[in-house]
Amino acid sequence: MQVSEAHVTLTDFRFTCGDTLAAVTQNYRTLGTPRRAADGDVVNAVLLLHGTTGSGTQFLIPSTADHLFGPGRPLDLASHYVILPDALGHGGSSKPSDGLGNRFPQYGYVDIVTAQHRLVTEHLGIRTLRLVAGTSMGGMQTWMWGQMYPDTMRALMPIAALPQRVRGRNLLYRRLLIDAIRTDPAYRDGAYDSQPRSVGLAFNIFALLTHGVPALERAIDSIATADAYVQKAADDAVRLQDANDTIWEFAASFDYDPSARLSDITAPLLAVNFEDDEVNPSGPDVLRDAVERVARGRAVIVPTGPGSDGHLSLKNARLWAHHVREILAWTTDGHHGS
């Protein structure tokens, strides 16, 4: 699987908070080859959107890529051109740790989707995406793509995301981990010289809420394994993450609430959530009630089973890749169901 990585510069980028940067970097990767119609428009482009704290490389891990991109798989690269952007504030795209630190504008999900749209339309020259899909934060932004740019895709597939403002456990853990960093004296109001250890605590909170309960039961069976787990997660976070980046990433979700405009989504949409996801508890009706307000919406709740891991079931594409095939078949020319 050949991966090409590049970046574009988005000039005069105005954030929803009112700040403007003369230039921001939008990093991205592509797989496969664009195929063009007679009019020159790319007809096989798929946009895949990653989750909070991640990057487009999330989709390249074997447990995901092996079920999506190989021969005969739903997004077989012989016939699909896959675009994997790093969300603004993540990966190789502009973020606080690039130099501005706590002076970096507090971006929201609207800003992230705007940057993605500029990448797709202005720089890649794509008018219509075959599919927009994403997991977790990327799933939330998939709902937003359907509202903000309803004529730019033939299909939508949000995964592990609910079309409502962040609330309940999902909101509580975000506030807790942000507060854990901000109240750490070593954070120094974002002007730290070395990573505060509270970043490790923040990512342990993140892991606690996103892993499935049965999965943690299997992994943590003694005080020794619990201590080792916590220590490794903390050490990895301090080594690999940045405190300001982390705060900005989780706070970005606070502008998210697509619930009032679900009827604006005109593209066929298949929402996929997981039964054991405690970050986005769907219950018997939450997701299905939402998709009833989408003109051509369907919902699937993946039952708990072998390979499930709560919210992080999203990393195991074996559990949901067949639904990618389903939405593509549903939206093939001549098969646009209601």
From TrEMBL:
GO terms for biological process: homoserine metabolic process; methionine biosynthetic process. InterPro entries: AB_hydrolase_1, AB_hydrolase_fold, HAT_MetX-like. Residues 44-281 form the AB hydrolase-1 domain. GO terms for molecular function: homoserine O-acetyltransferase activity. Pfam families: Abhydrolase_1. Keywords: Transferase. This is Homoserine O-acetyltransferase.
